[in-house]
Amino acid sequence: METLTDQVRAERLKALNSLMEMLRPMVQADGGDIVLVRCDVEAGVVEVQLQGACSSCAIAEDTLSGGVERILKDRLTWITEVIGGVEETDDIEASQLLGVGGYVPKYRPS
Q: For residues 95 and 81, what is the distance between their CA atoms, to the nearest angstrom?
């Protein structure tokens, strides 16, 4: 693992936060949200969480891997891994009511 100066660490974290703020309105437009859970700028590991309508969305995993992970790795070359998840504590019915646009509810058998 690479040892970074405090300045480089701060620059990486600032760039990541800026990129996350750019992504948020796209996720929020569908009734969800995305938050940065943790980041190890030296190892290049970033953990994010989808919330709101994303909690019950059938394409949440695709959003994480095909969208968020791809964008983060493409724009911030120091990122080696993106760990993603959805907020599991949200009420399914309430999160479904937040969805708009291309929202597709996740199938959950009774």
A: 28
List the chain domain ranges.
6-95
54-74 residue pLDDT tens: 777 778 888 888 889 999 999
The fourth-level CATH superfamily of domain 6-95 is Fe-S cluster assembly (FSCA) (3.30.300.130)
| C-alpha closest to that of 79 among 48, 50, 49, 43 | 43
CA distance 33 to 16: 16
What is this structure's pTM? 0.75
Segment 5-37, tens digit of pLDDT: 999 999 999 999 999 999 898 888 888 889 999
